[in-house]
Design goal:
It contains 12 helices and 24 strands. With 396 residues, it is of the alpha+beta class. A hairpin with an 8-residue loop joins strand 15 and strand 16. The longest helix has 13 residues. The radius of gyration is 21 Å and the shape is globular.
């Protein structure tokens, strides 16, 4: 038995099949932070690295930043022994133990990345490459989904741009975007897209290859485990975006041969030009059958794909909820306090708000108790194919 598996055996035995995780803070240098992640105000700015704009959850994915630090983006296990073990090392060393043998054999990893992102402005219009393009630079595609939590300031620009006006795709006028990429001087590329208001307790599903400029609402995101992207917007307000981010995940030979046109080939024009984009990608919470809604309520908040799924659980004050799941999942405790499988948890306390429930523990009844005076709000994040019963929107 290897060293890491021995450490995991001890940790899992002590905490009943549940692992505590340390917060993984991620800096970005292209926009200022929104300062809503609960850090002391003087800890957001990190000089040349930019500012803390994201927190990655149960992450086995390294952040791909121009200026970074070792293991940025990776989650570490919170171990009483003080030993330093990343969740990535744990999965690689003892995948059967954490993921279950069938899941480990099929995927070999958690297969998803959850995060909180928190920017002080709307993000630039960008895409995450589809697999056929991401694979050319040794990366994975990045399909993603958003949920906008309640009771958090929405920021100065709570609207998200998605896709392009349908006529652009219908008439194959793809080159209409090209001057914005070659000139690289302003944010007028947004005139070719549509904006949708971000609303609390609401969300969207965003396939890879879709143009999008997420608004300033603090966002819970679930996605494929990748940090691949290409920025297509030269400025946000008066803040310039580094043009190198346009070609961050484009092969050198494609850039030399095609220039900016290489990016047009990476856009899924059919989905971007869908005249029913909102109806086909808007994902408000969907209630699950409740044991007793006066005690607890549960909702699908990430769905419409087999690549990942997620739930929101609300346990009311004094309530006890017992449930089972189909496989390994991670947890973010968003609000309130209580116990989760016997472990003390508390929202907005980074030492007590993040967990990983291993496969064997997830599949047997687990008790969640609210010991506080407000709702205990918990988000659960699942990888591919764990929840085949998650809703799928009927396409128009």
């Amino acid at each position: 038995m290897n060293r890491i598996q021995k450490i995991l055996d001890r940790a899992l035995a002590a905490d009943g099949g549940i692992l505590r995780l340390e917060p993984a803070w991620v800096a970005r240098d292209f926009l200022p932070p929104g300062r809503r992640l609960g850090l002391p105000d003087d800890q957001y700015q990190l000089g040349p690295r930019g500012g803390i704009c994201e927190r990655w959850l149960a992450s086995t994915t390294r952040a791909d930043n121009r200026i970074g630090v070792p293991d940025e983006g990776l989650s570490f296990l919170a171990l009483d022994s003080g030993k330093r073990v990343t969740l990535k090392q744990a999965v690689e060393s003892a995948g059967d133990l954490l993921l279950g043998k069938e899941y480990a054999d099929r995927y070999g990893c958690l297969g998803r990345l959850a995060k909180i992102f928190d920017y002080g402005d709307r993000l630039p219009l960008h895409i995450h490459q589809m697999q056929r393009h991401a694979g050319l630079v040794g990366r994975k595609s990045k399909e993603e989904a958003y949920y906008f939590p309640e009771d958090v300031p929405m920021g100065p620009h709570p609207e998200t741009f998605f896709g392009v006006h349908p006529y652009i795709a219908e008439q194959k006028r793809y080159d209409i975007l090209l001057p914005h990429l070659t000139d690289w001087r302003d944010e007028s590329i947004l005139r070719h897209s549509r904006a949708y208001l971000q609303m609390p307790n609401d969300g969207f599903h965003v396939p890879a290859g879709v143009l999008h400029a997420p608004g300033s609402a603090l966002t819970i995101e679930l996605q494929e485990d990748s940090d691949v992207f290409a920025m297509l917007q030269a400025k946000v307000g008066d803040r310039p975006i580094d043009r190198d981010l346009l070609f961050k995940d484009v092969r050198k030979e494609d850039r030399e041969k095609l220039g900016e046109r290489a990016l047009l080939d990476m856009i899924d024009w059919e989905v971007n030009g869908d005249p029913y984009f909102y109806e086909n990608r808007h994902t408000p919470p969907v209630p699950l059958p409740a044991q007793n809604p006066k005690i607890a309520e549960e909702f699908w908040i990430f769905y419409n794909t087999r690549l990942f799924s997620g739930k929101k659980l609300v346990v009311h004050p004094g309530g006890v909820h017992t449930g089972t799941e189909r496989g390994v999942y991670s947890v973010l405790v968003w609000r309130g306090e209580g116990t989760f499988g016997g472990l003390g948890v508390e929202g907005w306390n980074p030492a007590l708000d993040e967990l990983l429930v291993v496969h064997s523990r997830a599949c047997v009844p687990l008790e969640i108790r609210n010991t506080g005076s407000i709702d205990l709000v918990i988000f659960k994040f699942f990888g591919p194919d764990i929840n085949p019963d998650a809703p799928v929107l009927k396409k128009r």
